[in-house]
Amino acid sequence: MIIIAELNHTKQAHIQYNASILSIFLRIVRFGKVCFVADRYHQEYILTTLSREQAAVNNLTTRNVKVSYSNHINRLYWIPRITFEWWNTLRVMQKARKANAPLVFFCSMFPTSIYFLNTILRRFFPDQKIIITLHGELELLKEKAGGVLQKLLLRGLLKKHNNTHYLVLGDSIKHNLLNTVPINQEQILTLIHPYFYSRSPKEQVTAGKDRPIRLAAIGLMAVYKKSHLIYRLAETLKEKVINNKIEFTIVGSLHKSILPYVNEWVKSDKSEELLEREEFEKRINQIDYAIYFYDNSYYQLCSSGAIFDAVNFEKPIISLRNDYFSEIFDKAGAIGYLCDSLEEMEEMIVRILRAGDLQYNTFVENMKAFKRNFSNEALGQEFARQLTEREIFV
């Protein structure tokens, strides 16, 4: 039995990644069981996704754990947050030993738990093979005046152990990580962010002369993601918004850090809650372009699930340039426009408004090809190859 654990998130967080990686392991593990350990609410969303995508789950079992989470974060929040994850990590390791599990895969981990697992628990479970997926917490490593979380994360990562490996979701992330910390590259596995791609988006809408060009920011809007720049861009182009030439909208949720920037030129629900999948798909199908404001201040060591939402629904991209998006564009071909400044994004939008976009259909075709080439089935084959080569799981 292989154990897949998500002890860091609940509800809809990381649904696409967790459901996809679970489906990949269900393909790889042809004999024996795969046990998914997660919060009950998160499990419900994952199982619904697997059912919707008609993924085979015959050899899947589940186990519930309590994950502490709240939208309202204060100092008291961190005590149960950290304690629960430590306790659940210990329980998972104990279960793995009891079941003689050849591999434990953590979908994500908070920095305190990476430290706890690699420096403390490892003394008691030295032979257990482990893979930890590294996400946005890696961006902590770039901070010059690093706090407690950075120090704990760094100490955890640098605690070398032959049976511990890390999965990062892009070659550019691996390259930047190796240039940031002296981690052993043999411990690092790479895989493009897995995603359940649809073959043909439903209710596809294309731009027309009788309505504005619709541009949308997708996912969680937060200042650290530079999402507030959509409001500055929309205000710069407000005359075209007023004249119904352009429409800016948010397809996602708003972090509280964004609220001071909200203005009348961008449509949104002003909610911190994630959209239900059906409503999310309905709204994203109505846009023409997905716009992103991520730059290398955050996206050198972090992947973006939001770009794959745009790819899935075949919505060309207009974005600030960052290492991760550049990698995806290199692999996919032209799927939109990468800009070096907000002013260049503005100029691109105005140019499209005036002259149209002759490359639009090419972008869509390249997205369709990317979905075929990097499907979960294709990624599963690549991941299985890496696991075999490193003798992690055969």
Describe the structure in your own words.
With 394 residues, this protein is an alpha/beta fold. The chain folds into two domains: 2-197 and 375-389, Glycogen Phosphorylase B (Rossmann fold, 3-Layer(aba) Sandwich); 213-373, Rossmann fold (3-Layer(aba) Sandwich), CATH 3.40.50.2000. It is built from 14 helices and 13 strands. The strands form two sheets. The protein has a seven-stranded parallel sheet, sandwiched between helices. Helix 1 (15-28) packs across helix 2, helix 1 (15-28) packs across helix 14 (376-389) and helix 4 (111-119) runs parallel beside helix 5 (148-158). The mean pLDDT is 90.
* Helix-strand pattern: EHEHEHEHEHEHEEHHEEHEHEHEHHH
Q: Give the second-level CATH assignment, the architecture of the largest domain.
A: 3-Layer(aba) Sandwich
Number of DSSP helices?
14
Taken together, the total number of domains comes to: 2
Taken from the alpha-carbon principal axes, the silhouette is globular
CATH topology of the largest domain: Rossmann fold
Q: Note the beta-strand portion.
A: 15-25%
* Strand element count: 13
Give the CATH level 1 class of the largest domain: Alpha Beta
Strand order of the largest sheet: 3-2-1-4-5-6-7
Q: CATH homologous superfamily of the largest domain? A: Glycogen Phosphorylase B
**Whole-number mean pLDDT:** 90
